[in-house]
Amino acid sequence: MCGIWAYLGLNAGGNAAKLIPWLIxxxxxxxxxxxCHVNGGILKLNDASTVKSTLCLGHARYSTSGPYGVELQPxxxxxxxxxxxMAQ
Length: 88
Fold this sequence. Notes:
This protein has 88 residues and is mainly beta. The protein is built from 2 helices and 6 strands; from the N terminus they run E-H-H-E-E-E-E-E. The strands form 2 sheets. A 4-stranded antiparallel sheet has the order 1-4-2-3. It has a two-stranded antiparallel ribbon with strand order 5-6. It is globular. The termini are close together.
């Protein structure tokens, strides 16, 4: 299963980025991606360490099937919604 985590509170971007070493074993072959709440909207980022946010979600992809190098999750729709697809 992929590594999925979140941080809610001051300096969420920096704190979410600090969690990577504890969760990279759950994935990371293809990278880590974040969705952070910034200025009333959601930004998808490859590095959240310097983002001023109070809520960030992180994802490390553990690829067991499907094409390599596909778009990393979270999936962000518009400016106000992000989610993760779970394998079935």
